[in-house]
Fold this protein.
Amino acid sequence: MIKGWFAVYYRELLILRRKFFRQAASMSIAPLLYLIAFGLGMGRNITVDGHSYMEFLVPGLVAMTSMTQAFAIGVEINVARFYWHIFDEFQSAPVSNLAYVIGETLAGITRALLSSAIILVIAALFGIVLHYSLFFWLIIILNSFIFASIAICSAMLVKSHADQSLFSNFIITPMAFLGGTFFPVENLPFRAQKLLNLLPLTHASHAIRDASYGNMPNIFPYLLLSGIGVIFFIAGVFCVNKAKS
């Protein structure tokens, strides 16, 4: 008999496998456009901290896309909850709330890793190959851990599938553009820097960029993102409890 968390995770993997080529194509479009528009179009002659703008942009796109793809698991949960009523079946199945959250979180992390790998392949086609060490992948996992957990919270709190887009519009999209993805946060006024440093994506972008440049990792963002991820993971379990009651 398979474990409850693996049953939830395996279901999401089967869905991903069934839609793999469509998902891969969908994950490729935005990074490809950003690389062409911002990397080749605007940043061809720009250098940032001794690196070309394309080398600066690729780690930022990895941070941003791992966030959005991990958060996108919330859409799958909502569709399953409001249209397919899969969540109702989980309530009657011997699957604990903790197992449910673990399975969905792993599914979000898997999507994030897949989308990150796709970006690196596209970047390689543009001639951009950086350092993809264990620390590089670890910070991606931590970043996606946070946003997959947030996605579960939001999916359990909303009252309809349409409400889920509010989280994307007011939280995820602003963070994607302001979290050190396209420009150095250090270029902004001091108070704006302080404000943006409250965003987990800002720390993820910096850490992914440092790792991809082959620099020695700063342990602080790894600890910070781990702590934030655990908080939202626990919140996700409570939100599932609330949605069931």
Q: What stands out?
A: The two ends are 27 Å apart (CA to CA). The beta strands are 47-48, 51-52. The first strand starts at residue 47 and ends at 48.
